[in-house]
Amino acid sequence: MNALEVLDKEVIAQDGSKIGKIKDLIFDHASWTVNALVVELEKNIAQEFNVKKALSRTRIRTSVHHIQGMSDRIVLRIPKQELFRIPTQTKQQNYS
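The structure corresponding to this sequence follows.
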């Protein structure tokens, strides 16, 4: 699977919640691996966790280790609440 096939795939949390869509991949040039996904959050998810940006879409980064499976959607092995408890998450970073 190449990067273009992953972009715009729907992301679903372990609890079945639709989180958003993949908008970018974070690539580690040293190891030649993708180590994170940039997810553009659904408006209701961003509002629920109080991370909604005023004038733009809200994007977060999540580790590829959180992926349970991938086909026409990406299913995470964690519930939506865990996305906002992970220490590597930075709500202020702009992934546009």
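The first strand starts at residue 10 and ends at 12.
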